[in-house]
Amino acid sequence: STSGFMYQNMPRLAKVKYVLPYQVFEIEDYDLKYLLILRLGIAYRDVTHLACANPSTLVKLLAVLAANRTSLLRDIMQQTFSRIDELSIDVQAVIRPRLSCTPRRVTELQTILTLPQPTFADLWPELQMVSTWTGGSCGIPLARVRPTLPPTARVAELGYLASELRGTLMVDLNRNIGIPTIHENFFEFVERDDWDAGRQAFLTIDQLTEGKEYYIFPTTATGLYRYFMNDIVRVTGLFYNTPTIEFVQKGKGVTNITGEKLYESQVIAAVRIAEDATGFVSGFFLMLADTVQERYRLVVECATPTDNWAQQTVESIERHLMAGNVEYAAKRASGRLQPLELLPVRSGTGDAYKQHCLQQGQREGQFKLIALQYQADCPFPFAEFRVDLTTHSVD
């Protein structure tokens, strides 16, 4: 991935400031890797910067931390890593010199690791910045991460970054302004509605309009030619005379059961509003378009759902989807689109789904949750993770 390449090839002066050696990220065992990341990271109090492509990584770290507090504390006190024999010889050689911990830090961790749910603020009170993706479906796990950070810590957008290229450079972290890398790549664009309708009206960067959304097609020095990223970007303004862009969603994040043409960004916005109304923030949700039953089904992670919460959530989401999408409202009013259905699933379902996707060939560092999909394209058995609550729908 581009992010991995950048990490591996950063200047030596910068590399010595980082706690984790690159070899740690090449460990294939999912849980072992996260446990080792924590073991190396918690040895230091003065961590000031966390960086990861997807904030779901940070959610996973907190879960692994809570589940392994006792073993981590024992390892810290013994200056070792209990699962070191499961690592390759090369990785063992790299991490052994990094397992030491000062007596003062050991004392601090003896208190921190007795907490039932330690946070990043507990571990690293000097943390100043978290660099990660914030747009699109990444806002889902990020909402769970923010309350765990120190009050002064800032979340900084990584910018438009993919395996194929770095698409933007961030020039204003306060407003998350990113300029396209026109010094490295040639970009073409097609308006979102035109591409979805089969019209390939290509535009160059000087022809873009602020506020509009486009599919992006880069031509790169490494050999990609008018490459279809299946990414949708939005023009956010100008930096001098250069349009600035932000990632909105993958192109696949759009469904159409009966003419409503629902977008992933509309679903995410509606769920966010419902969360504000109910006071409950889910760590994972996914909207499925069921073309057979002609309805949408919202899979949402919730450990102890109540009837009242379920009804409020469905009503709020339906209301805001209809307000933001006139065709959705029309199809619901005419009965061509059936009521939204809620499928509450137990905690850990999102992680199980991610594991499933990784087993299908996706790389962990490149995993991006598409929060709106067709039921037929999503074979994961969410029904097996259902919690004990009668499915609610709004008539």
Automatic annotation (TrEMBL):
Residues 182-250 form the GH3 middle domain. Residues 266-369 form the GH3 C-terminal domain. One of its GO terms (molecular function) is acid-amino acid ligase activity. GO terms for cellular component: cytoplasm. This is GH3 auxin-responsive promoter.
